Amino acid sequence: MISAIKGRTTIELIKRESCPLGLTISGGIDKDGKPRVAQLKIGSIAQKADVLEIGDVILAINSIKTASLKHEQVIDLIKQVGDQLTLDIEYDLPKWRMYKSIGSFSFHKFSFEYNYI
Questions:
Q1: What is the arithmetic mean of pLDDT over 93-103?
Q2: Alpha helices in the chain (DSSP H)
Q3: What is the CATH number of domain 9-109?
Q4: What is the spatial distance between Cα 10 and Cα 8, in angstroms, rounded to a whole number?
Q5: Where are the chain's structural domains?
Q6: What's the DSSP call for residue 76?
Q7: What are the strands, taking DSSP E only, across the chain?
Q8: Which of 5, 31, 72, 94 is packed most tightly, with the most Cβ within 10 A?
């Protein structure tokens, strides 16, 4: 069995009055595990950034680690930021499978695409 390979990145979102952040979070130590992106509102800053994906794990918010925080504490951190929100994210990398062909092994990438700006 092939385990998931994770990637990490830092994302900066700049808030604007006329456009909502549009980020819904699930998880926290009092909920179902690590804080994650649960939903991205269409047309929002988070969705237009074209970097976040549903299921991405939020490791830190403005350099504050989220692993030991309750759900409401994570939400409060996001609400309290000024005009700039910095998120440290962990995400699944595309999966690779190994197939055995006659006398050799070959690797095939599953179709999965990320768009970065």
A1: 56
A2: 45-48, 71-80
A3: 2.30.42.10
A4: 7
A5: 9-109
A6: H
A7: 6-14, 23-28, 33-40, 57-61, 64-65, 84-92, 96-101, 104-109
A8: 31
Beta bridge partners of 117: none
Residue 48 to residue 57: CA distance in whole angstroms: 19
Amino acid at 90: E
Reported pTM: 0.75
CA 7 to CA 112: how far, in whole Å?
A: 14
Give the span between the Cα atoms of 13 and 67, in whole angstroms: 21
* Each residue's pLDDT tens digit, 49-88: 889 999 999 999 999 999 999 999 999 999 888 889 999 9
Whats the size of the chain, residue-wise?
Answer: 117
Which candidate, 27, 71, 28, 20, places its Cα nearest to that of 47? Answer: 20
Task: Determine contact, residues 23/40, Cβ cutoff 8 Å.
Answer: yes
Per DSSP bridges, beta strands 64-65 and 57-61 are: antiparallel
